[in-house]
Automatic annotation (TrEMBL):
Coiled coil: none annotated. It comes from the Eukaryota. The keyword Transmembrane helix applies. It holds the Pfam family MFS_MOT1. This is Sulfate transporter. The chain crosses the membrane at residues 65-82, 107-131, 143-166, 186-206, 272-289, 309-327, 334-352, 372-396. One of its GO terms (molecular function) is molybdate ion transmembrane transporter activity. PANTHER family: MOLYBDATE TRANSPORTER 2, PTHR31970. Keywords: Membrane, Transmembrane, Transmembrane helix. The lineage of its organism: Eukaryota, Sar, Stramenopiles, Ochrophyta, Pelagophyceae. InterPro entries: MOT1/MOT2 (IPR031563).
Length: 422
């Protein structure tokens, strides 16, 4: 083998030094920003993460230890990549299908691999930018508004109506009021989770034999989906998930991150889509649950104090440590013991923050309201986006027809507010 030219070797060494220096600076910045508020912010996504993880585990669709281990790994990688509180969430349509229809582990893995591969292809080929140009900003805001209000509704359902139970409306209501009224420098989510962890630990210790404690026992063996798994996973879960991931987990989350952090380096649509692809193309073969970066998780973590990658850096290592310490069975019992009313309060507050962001951006536009209304009414983000696109382009067509009748009228770009009287 021919030796490398000195110039090529020096270039490689320079690249390596640049990467090492980048990681060193990022790592150093995390340690200086490990505050109580960042720790509080990292809890903002638990209202979605824990209930879906537990429900899928109860159906035999995932192993909770392996699933949370991988989300922790992806959290740490994301922290270095963007230095934003970018969440790692379960893909909700795949999760809902697995919970309601009892998909096997292989089918869930196949659904995640298919969706991740498709989204990565959109990013690597640049097609995601075409999708972004085609989808008006008002529709993206409508997705955020509708999804946020749906999260509020699900959170209220978690709280329930068992007025005499400890884990009920009084506990959940108190947590929600505390979260809504707390000062911005109070780590309220961290306090809520600590209360919930104390309750869960008490129940877990009271109902589980210490002899069953089995740390490090994780279901991370390679998955080999069968042909029937591929068919069921792609047709029943992967295809319905693809529009939601493209719109909410790439386009919407990038738009939201620009609004929340206008002075930061952007999380580009290409980088987010390729990240979603890598998480699922690699992780789902080894027990990861299908995962994405959702706007709801970002808004929740921001709501509770996260302002950078330090939050998810801590969160990732915390997940890894807990999973390794408890193992599969004990982790499942611990999640099941966590008060659902507190998860509901966290989810409702995160949803309210996401809905506020969507309404603040384009809340008065017809396309925004149409998208949100259908998203809520049908519990289907894809249907909401389709209706929103129809309304937005109908308004644009009306405006173009008006402009033809009035030659002096300026043509209005797609992303500006549009009114139509025809």
């Amino acid at each position: 083998m021919a030796a490398k030219a000195p110039a090529d070797q020096e270039e490689e060494e320079e690249v390596c030094r640049g990467v090492v220096e980048f990681l060193r600076r990022r790592h150093s910045s995390f340690w200086t920003r490990m505050t109580a508020m960042e720790a509080s912010g990292m809890m903002g996504d638990l209202g979605t993460l824990l209930p879906l993880t537990l429900a899928m585990a109860e159906k035999g669709s995932i192993r909770p230890g392996a699933a949370l281990l991988w989300t922790g790994v992806f959290n740490v990688i994301g922290a270095y990549q963007w230095d934003l509180p970018m969440p790692v969430q379960p893909m909700k349509t795949i999760a809902a299908t697995a919970i309601t229809e009892g998909l096997s582990e292989g089918a869930v893995a196949a659904a995640g691999i298919f969706t991740g591969g498709a989204v990565a292809l959109l990013g690597l080929t640049g097609v995601i930018e075409i999708v972004n140009r085609v989808v008006p900003r008002s529709v993206v805001s409508g997705i955020q508004l509708g999804l946020g209000l749906r999260m509020v509704g699900v959170g209220v359902a978690y709280v329930g109506a068992r007025w005499t139970a400890l884990d009920g409306p009084f506990l959940g209501g108190a947590a929600a009021l505390a979260g809504a009224a707390a000062a911005q420098d109070l780590p309220v989510a961290l306090l809520i989770v600590l209360v919930g962890a104390a309750v869960a630990a008490g129940q877990w210790l009271a109902t589980n034999d210490a002899a069953r404690y089995a740390p490090y026992a994780l279901g991370v063996a390679p998955r080999q989906p069968t042909s029937s798994d591929w068919a069921a996973g792609i047709l029943r879960a992967g295809l319905p998930q693809l529009p939601l991931t493209t719109l909410n987990s790439v386009i919407s989350v990038c738009a939201l991150s620009e609004r929340l952090f206008p002075d930061r380096e952007k999380a580009t649509r290409r980088s987010v889509s390729t990240s979603v692809g890598a998480m699922n193309l690699i992780g789902c073969f080894f027990g990861a649950m299908p995962s994405c970066h959702g706007a709801g998780g970002l808004s929740g973590q921001y709501k509770f104090g996260a302002r950078g990658g330090a939050a998810i850096f801590m969160f990732g290592f915390l997940k890894i440590a807990i999973v390794l310490a408890l193992g599969e069975t004990n982790l499942r019992n611990a999640i099941a013991a966590f008060p659902r009313s507190l998860l509901g309060a966290l989810l409702a507050l995160a949803g309210a923050e996401l809905a506020r962001a969507g309404a603040k951006a384009d809340g008065a536009e017809t396309a925004t309201l149409a998208t949100a209304g259908v998203t809520i009414g049908l519990s289907n983000t894809g249907a909401g986006a389709a209706v929103g696109l129809l309304v937005a382009y109908s308004e644009l067509l009306c405006e173009k027809l008006k402009a033809r009748r009035s030659p002096t009228t300026r043509e209005i770009p797609m992303h500006e507010p549009i009114s139509c009287s025809c």
